[in-house]
Amino acid sequence: MRFRLTPRETSFYDMFAASADNIVTGSKLLMELLGADTAGRAEIAERMRAAEHAGDDATHAIFHQLNSSFITPFDREDIYSLASSLDDIMDFMEEAVDLVVLYNVEDLPKGVEQQIEVLARAAELTAEAMPNLRTMDNLTEYWIEVNRLENQADQIHRKLLAHLFNGKYDAIEVLKLKQIVDVLEEAADAFEHVANTVETIAVKES
Predict the structure, then answer these.
(1) What is d(CA 112, CA 118) in angstroms, rounded to the nearest whole number?
(2) Whose CA is closest to 47, among 34, 61, 21, 28?
(3) Which residues contact 39 (CB under 8 A, 6 or more apart)?
(4) What average pLDDT score do residues 97-118 get?
(5) Farthest CA pair distance, the chain
(6) Is 74 helix (H, G, I), strand (E, B) or coil?
(7) Most CB atoms closer than 10 Å: which of 22, 23, 58, 121?
(8) Which among 83, 80, 88, 77 is positioned nearest to 204, based on CA atoms?
(9) pTM
(10) For the domain bounded by 12-205, which CATH number is listed?
(11) What is the pLDDT of residue 9?
């Protein structure tokens, strides 16, 4: 790691870790959604909204700290990008749950559980990686694995779209379900954006 002569604002590390931990909470709520009935899904949606609001608060706290700090642990644009991408993940997960409830979807298509499993694994890896920003150690495997998971998510997404357009669903149902699986795919993309930002930070700090 590059030697520094100036002190660094360390609270960013804790805030990034808290934001990532909140994403793990969101991914667990997605897992709960799979086995829930209609009433249970509405309750999960309420808890997901609360988690999304907590994520917004965490992001705003990072931005406030960024605007008020003279010294930062790494480049300001990277701090902004990392915080924004973490926030995007939570937004997409909350949107997916909300759409399931708003559209009153009874049965999610086979394959959605695989999408959510990928997101849950990516959430765990991201939460494990954030504390390592302090030292920049043991991060290479993290971004490699998240990129692999995103590729896996792409494959699952394509199979889901093929399934939705196989003629077994009516047009309105296809539109509803496609929007849900597309948002889950956007969440996977956002995890990759986080990993790519972490890689950029690590390269700059090496």
Answers:
(1) 10
(2) 28
(3) none
(4) 95
(5) 65
(6) coil
(7) 23
(8) 77
(9) 0.92
(10) 1.20.58.220
(11) 55
